[in-house]
Every structure is written in structure tokens, then in C-alpha cells.
Design goal:
Chain lengths: ~425, ~500
Amino acid sequence: MSATLQKNTPAAPDLASALARPPRGGWVEAARAAAEARLEQTGLPGRRDEYWRFTRPDTLTAPEAGTAALLKDDEAPFFGGTDCLNLVFVDGAFDADASDKLEGTGLTIERLADVAATSDHWAQELYGVLEARGQKPVVRPLAAINTARATDGLLIRATGKVEKPIAIRYLRRDADADAMLHSVVRVEEGASLTLLENGPAAARFNSVLEVDLGDEAAFHHIRTQGRDHERREATHIFARLGRESLFKSFTLSANGALTRNECIIEMTGDDGVAHVAGAALGDGASGAFHHDDTIFVTHDALRCESRQVFKKVLRNGAVGVFQGKILVKAGAQKTDGYQISQSLLLDEDSQFLAKPELEIYADDVVCSHGSTTGAIDETALFYLRSRGVEKAEAQDLLVLSFLAEAIEEIDDADLAANINDRLAAWLRRRRS
Amino acid sequence: MAALDAEIREGVDRETVETVQSMAGKYKHGWNTEIEMEYAPKGVNPDIVRLISNKNEEPEWMTEWRLQAFERWTQLEEPTWAMVNYPEIDFQDQYYYARPKSMEEKPKSLDEVDPKLLATYEKLGIPLKEQMLLAGVEGAEDAGERKVAVDAVFDSVSVGTTFQAELKKAGVIFCSISEAIREHPELVKKYLGTVVPASDNFYATLNSAVFSDGSFVYVPPGVRCPMELSTYFRINAENTGQFERTLIIADKGSYVSYLEGCTAPQRDTAQLHAAVVEIVIEEDAEVKYSTVQNWYPGDENGKGGIYNFVTKRADCRGDRAKVMWTQVETGSAVTWKYPSCILRGDDSQGEFYSIAITNNYQQADTGTKMIHLGKNTKSRIVSKGISAGHAQNTYRGLVSMHPKAKNSRNYTQCDSLLIGSECGAHTVPYIEVKNNSSRVEHEATTSKVDDDQLFYCRQRGMDEEEAVALVVNGFCKEVLQALPMEFAMEAQQLVAISLEGSVG
């Protein structure tokens, strides 16, 4: 694989020249400058880059966000029934009035915009640092530009077992908004935290989340990306795992013209566990649907376990992409790596493009990957119909059972049930 | 072989390790033949291209075709995407044409060939005599009337082709490609470069410009080729690249099985081998192409060896056409090879079976492409990579289902095994599915052997591991048995290798 991007000469004005640079000064300045230098070196991704083989980055790198029609009603968040610390961003800007106070037990939580100008901060050791580590061996310029230019986001530090999940709602009011947020999460040794995210954020959303897990720390992350059909989104999660730590992330994506979710996980402590899962449903009839999951898991410690479970249901010209890689470094013995990417194509027009990679330098490991693509199983459909289940309902049942393996990655039963209801509702809306 | 002497861990049996070890340690074809050679000047340029064309007494259109390819080559860049590392190749510091002096006048029959050359092939176990079977093949007495026709290529020229007369009776043309360009220009003109275009990729383009010889096969409609055809490639001269070109045409309803073997002497400097194989398969025809690649792999410190940069492609043009690639890759310092199938005709089929073994500092980046264009096309990929010492072994493949390839099927399985902690095994599959009536399955675990077979073994009292090992071993044998008899000897050594403890 080519380690660097083809340098794209900026003939036309691009995002980098269109975006304002944040004010100078404060602890964050050095990290921003380093990211700026990385960006300078690589340029923004272009169509010819191998890492963007299946997804066109044009709308993500264009100077303007472009318009994305607003969904008529705000979606009720999937964590509505759960007691959370609720935070709200509107078009990428923090809405203090709609949010709870930034405080909690076993927790410090601050806005990047509020503390960026101070001279010292605990996040200094992480901001842009995990992102920079994730730039090898493949560059991720959309994350670098985020580190360099984002002016807001959350800096969350869990020092104990945080009972109440932190729940972020990303609302949209402006059809043309371009949002960029950079958040850092540090879960200290033995501490635990749950982060929930919901909503479309903006017409175009670029988000970076850096997560650092101390020894025996646990982090649960569940998000549902907005249902706005025309929204475009590029998200990055960079996670570094300490000894015996647990990282679990699940993403539900229904709709969206373009979604690129990258998750870069580095297992640096022995006996760590990382699970990353996703369920995506796309219907090209309501506009374009292109969904790309790009995962890179590095095993650099003993006896770690990683799982990647990605399921996609596609119809009417929807496109699903999966690029997943497990890298087992020399010495990372007893690694258990698992990767599955499956897609269900509900009609002749949809596409699934996948590149499930393994790169292994240790001899005592178990790594497996599987990838399948196909239509709904006619035999199963026939069975259900022979039991008196109507065709559309039978099909929905089979879709839900297909997605179940990904949903099972959510530990909280209530949240999992809520996600499942959402899937069922999405399917119902499309029955005709 | 320090890495192999290390304690053998659980799950990999000693036999496997020893087999790999025995195959690695000594390269038995490393001797060279003392023979007077004539060379073209070092380097490559339009004059060299003309000279090669001239030596082969080619018509003007062929020279022109080569020159265009050369022109194109100068604009191309060497590919860097493969997971292989090697020092930069100086394309001007090697010979592109070398032939034994005695071959200046093309011998009219095998009787006229220089005895030294005949002795070379005799020593390699490929006697150029029209005998019933290749010497040394076990079970020969049961083989009855089996015959193998051989085209022997020594550096840049074909030394001779056996059984030509008998094949001619059946209507099969089997000769060197230089002879085909002279004797059957209409066929060559019609098919050459239609599967692998002259501008296809860096190495194929270089080959198009400077290929010196190779084999040509034409099987007419409805003919089942009466014997196995084979080409044996020997690189002998130092600092010389071998660029051979093979063109196989299986006309409607025909069948042919073709074998390819290759060896080279042990030398300290790396040598380039850039071949192109094109196969055209018309309606209802079937081609089996088997390779045992045993080029000199370099010594245990990674010095010397062959850089094997090969483009092989089969085009199933007609409906129900069928192609099967089987390869056992044990040699070469660097391998860059992706035998591919274009499944254009409806109901056509492509199969790819590969066992790649790398040891010491060998690097292999190999795999296949299955391009499904026609309806109801089927493909199957089975790849086993074994890596030991400091070697790197990569499977790289593409399965592409085009929108019109309705009801197509692909099944891919690639397993790798690492022996020692200094080596690497990698899998880079690309899967592109553009219609929903097709099924694509890719898996890379030994535990996913057929559940029914496992269940059968288990209910006979075997434990899980034993059952898996039995099924996987049986399966591996099945692949090897797909190889024609003549390769059985080399292949049998590999059968002992179990894939227990293998990783993705």
C-alpha cells in the first residue's frame, strides 16, 4: 500500500484555503501547527488515492459545505429514556441554554473553545497526538485538517466510574452549515465512561474523537448518525488502549448522501479488548447513499482481542464500502482478531465494495476475516411466508436478523432495544 | 535456519516445519551449464528491440508492435503498491537477449540440438526425447499411453519442441512463439495482445517490447489435445533477463492442459524474469494451466535470486468456457504475480489454486483477479501461503461482479501459516459487487471448513481439532491432485504440510 497520498496540487481553491485558521496562542497552538504541517505535506485526499478508492472525497474537501435539505422534524434521540448528562450542539455550535451544566461525578468536562487559550491543560498530551499516531502507515488528511482548524469540541476526563452517560445531540437549523468538532476523552486507570451521540450535526460534518484508555479503563460509545438524506459526514475515532482496558463502539447510520467513518485503534497494553461495530441502512431512492466504514486495528501487545462487525443493507443504488485492516505487529502474540463485513443487497442496483485486509507479523495468533455479499435468502423468505407472514414483513424480519450481530455489540439492553426499534421503524417507512 | 530450529509450537506439526525446511535449505537446480553464448549489447532501447525482432526473423508488423510497446514503456512507472521491497532495478545494466551459439542456426530436429543443451534438460529431469513419460515420475507404469510434449526455453530461445508431428495430426499447433510468428502470423496477429494489451502494466509492456521467445499453442475447434503440453524455462546466462511470452488459444469446444516449470542457477546477483501469458478460451473450451515455479530464491541471506514479475491472464470469451490456474510457488526472491480470469462468456468458470511457500528473505505478493462480466459465471479461489524465516507472503486478489453478471458466484478462501517470529503473512482482498443476484463469499479461517464434514468426523469420535486437521489436509491434497501427474513429484513434498495453527 502506498504510504503517502498522491500530492494533489491545489489548482482550485480547496477546503484548506477556504477555512479560517483558529486564533493563535494557548496550549493547543503547538498541536494545531503540527497538524497544519502534516496537512501541508499530504494535501487533501483526491480521487486517485488508494485509500479513497471506493469513495469520492470531493464533497468533503470542497471549499463550501453545500446545501443539505433539513429533515422536517428533529429526531428524538435514541437515549431519550436514559438518565444522561445532556449536551446540545446546533449546526456545530454549542448551545449552553439547551445543555446541562458541564459537570458530573467522577468527571471533568470542558469545551475546547473555553479552555484553548489557557497555557496548560491535561488534554495537551492527547490533542492531535493520537491523530498523528494514526497517520501511519496511511495518511488521514481530513483528520489532520480537523486538528488544525477545529475550534470547539469537548474535553472529557473520567477519573472514576461515571454512572450517567454523556449524551450529545447534534441538531441542525441551517441548511448550509459546515461543522467541525474535535473532542478528546481520557478514561483514567480503572475508570469507566459511556458516550452517546445522536444527530446529523450539519450539512457537512467533520468530527475527530481521540480516546485514551488507561489500564483497566472502560469506554462505551454508541452513536446514531442523522437521517437527513443529503448530509455528508467524515468522522474519525482514534483510540489508544491500555492494559486490560475495554473499548466498544457502535454506529448506526440510516440515510446520508455520504458518510465516511474511520476508526483507528491501537492496542498498546496487554489483554485489551476492542470491539467496533456498525449497522448501515441505505435507500438510494431518497437521494444518494454512500456509506464507508474504514477501520484500522493495530495489535501491539499480548493477548489482545479485537472484533470488527459491519453490516449493511442496501437498496435502490445505495453503495456500501468496507475497508478494514488488522495489523499484528511482531511480538503481539496470542492476538485474537476477528473481522466480518457483510452486506445485503435488496435489489439489482446496489453495490458493495470491500477490502478486508490482514497484515500479520506474529506467528501465534488467530486472525480471521470474512466478507459476504448477496441477496435475501429466498428459502428463509419462503419459510416465513409459508408460516403466514406477509412478504414485506418477512423481508424486514430477515433484515433485522441480518443486522442482529452488529446490534449485539451494544452492552446496554435498553439502548440496544431502542436502536432495534429505530431500524424497524426505518424499514416500515420504506414498505409500500 | 535459526528460526526453524526454534521450538515448534503447539498446533503446527513437526512434519510441516521439516518439509518447509527441506524445501528451503538446498536448491537443487542451482548449477549452471558451461556453454558458449552470444549476447545482445546490455540495456534496452529501440535498437535492441529491433535486434531481437530481427534475430527472430519477424515480419515488419511485429517489429512495429514491439517498438510501440517500448515507446509506451518509457512513459510508465514501476509499480510500488505490492508489499515487496527490493533494490532499484537498473534496466540498462542487463542483457535482454542471450542465446547459445549453437542455436544460431535453428536446428531442424531435436537430433541436431547441441548435446550440452540436451544434457541440461536431462539433468533437470526433462529429457527432450519423444518418450512416453518424463523420467522419474512415480507410478509411470500405470500411466499407460500418457505423453507430454515439451517446449524447452533456454535463456532467450526455444531449444526444441517435442511431439510436434504427432500433435499436428490432431490439428494442434505447439511451437515456440518465434516460430508461430513466422509460420502462423494470422493467428498471432489475431490474438497477441488481446488479453494482456501491450500497454497493460510496466512489466507486461516491457515484455511486449523485448520478449525473445516462449510457447504458442492453438487447439482447433472440438479437439481434445491428445497429450499434456509443457514448457520448461531455464535461465542460465548471468545478468540476463528472461522475457518469455506464451499465447494459448483454445478454440470452440477444445481442451488442453498446459504445464510450466522454471529453474535457474545459483548466483549472487538478482536476475529479472518478466513473462506474459495470454490465454484465449472460446465457447465450451477448457484450459488447465499449471505452474511449479522454482526459480532460484536467493541464498539464506537474501542474496541473489530471481525477480519474478509476471502477468498471466485468461479470457473466457465464449459461453461455458473454463479455465483453471494451479500454481505451486516455491522459488524466486521476489514474486509479483496475479494469474487472472476474465469471465466474459455466460456460464464461464474460473478457478485458482495456489500454494505459495516463502522462506529466508523471499517475498511473494501473489493472488488472482476474477472479473465476472457474463451471467451465471462462477469462480473459486483457494490460496495457501506459508511463510518461514524472514519471508513475507501476501495474498492480493480482486473479485469483481459487474452489474450484468447476474447470478454469479464466487468463493474465496485464503489461509496462511507462519513458521517463526520474523516472517509475515498478509491478505489484501478487494471485493466489488455490483448486482444482488450474485453471491460472494470470502473467508480466511481454517475453522470454517465444511460443517457437514466436521460433524461427520466428530460423530465418529474425533475431537474438533483432529477433525479440522483431517478435513483441511484432505482439502489441501485435493488442490495438489489438481496438478497434472508430471508435477506430482514436486507436489508430493508439499502434501505433508498441514495447515494447523494457521492464521487468517
